[in-house]
Design a protein that fits this description.
Number of helices: 2
Order of helices and strands: HH
Structural class: mainly alpha
Shape: elongated
Largest sheet: none
Length: about 55
Amino acid sequence: MARRTAIRPVGARVPGVNDAAAIRSWARANGIEVPDRGRIPTPIRDSYAAAHNS
């Protein structure tokens, strides 16, 4: 029996949640400090998702 792999291929994007440029822009517009490069902290990603999924 073949083993199933992930539902989404590795590297598949979830619209909005993985858009670093949009998250950085939103964070700065809302007075949140966010690094210019590198990983965006999870609390900022969570705040962005909450603001855009309501």
